[in-house]
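pinning this so it doesn't scroll away 📌
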Amino acid sequence: MSWIEITLRTLVSYLVLIIMTRVMGKKQLSHLTFFNYVTGITIGSMAASLVTDSNLQILQGTYSIILWSVLTVLLEYITLKSIKLRELTDGRPTILIKQGKLIEDALVKTRYNIDELNMMLRKSNIFNIEEVDYAILENSGELNILKKVEYQNYIKKDSNNSIKANKNITTQVISKGKMNTKTLDEFNLDVKWLENEIKKKGYKNLKDITYAEIDSNGSLFIMPVDKSKIKKEQN
């Protein structure tokens, strides 16, 4: 390749990358999930090939980057509507420690051993697993931890107040009118129980609920659909 061709390829690759990262948005830039991470690497590799591979035409290389980016954005829009597809591409958070108890099946499922878990705890300045009330492995691979009340730090304004128990960990059971049966199984609950609880709160149809979550005590929180927004869309 001539210096002019290399310069042209570099400029095209640079501009296309800037445009596509803006199109894909902040979620892609933050690498929230493994899928986002792989997508970012792939697009970067395509851009590098566009600059260095003389057998690849500029138009073809540019088309490949744009097509991959469009497919990524399209999939993200689809996963907003489909819980099952979202779980397939992004996965689900996994509870490794629940109410102070280690969930060994969850460790096996995520292919973590106890030494790796302790290492991740130490990164959060926790050197004793006994201090942990909840440990949740997020889709991004990050471990979020909630300490037991007696091990939590407190500030001066808390010194005159009695210590309160931890708030319960909540989990999604309904998203955009669709029920998440896996969550119900985790809490040893069934669909009929959820349907009865929904009726008790005055909801006749799942489509009237945009989001609902349940805590470890079985308390249900419901966020209804914004009916005013629906009317605007219909008009």
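📌 and the second one:
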Amino acid sequence: MKVSRIAATGAVAASAVLVLSGPAFAHVSVQPEGTAAKGGYATVNFKVPNERDNASTTKLEINFPADHPLASVMPQPVDGWDVKVTESKLDKPLELHGEKINKAVTKVTWTADGKGIEPGYFQKFPLSIGALPEDTDELVFKAIQTYSNKEVVRWIETQEDGEEEPETPAPVLALSAATDDHHGAAASDDDADADADAEKSDDTKAAADTTEAADTDSSDTTARVLGVVGIVVGVAGVAFGVLAGRRRTNA
């Protein structure tokens, strides 16, 4: 009897641990395609899992950080979803490519026009964003996930240093060090090698042209010398023939 009770208690405790730990493994997150360098542009994906067994995710709202506004935000079309980009006036204008920007995107909302994200599935929502700030190591986005049964989950809690991950953490985008070219990565080693090879090719071609010119000059000189020698030999032959004729006549 005691053994049965202990086993049952253990099973309930294990189930509770699984239920409580579920959200920590399946929350809304954001990751860049490649890297998200400070001062540059990046394509990021918001990954949204469905955590419910009896409802589908039908709406996702991503709120952008007000302390680091982004002047350029472009969504990539997602099949089965309508997207709306919301802009707001900035208290302090941004400067982008020498121009002042008075508005920035504050929210992007995707709404399913079909079944949405069904139980057991996840969906990625891509965005092209920039220019990324240079005075911070991360951007915190607050996400709101709505289900078909009207349930709303707010992924808005921030991670505090030294504390455990919150139950509904906000998506955080880590920023890498700035590159030489803010619009993309610096020139690659392959490009540098290609330039070096092209330069070597030009040098080789120039050397070949010089050698060819030298060969041509040498050939022309040789031809002139042989021509002069031929003329001299020809004249000598004629003179010898005339002298020989005179000797026969005198004899």
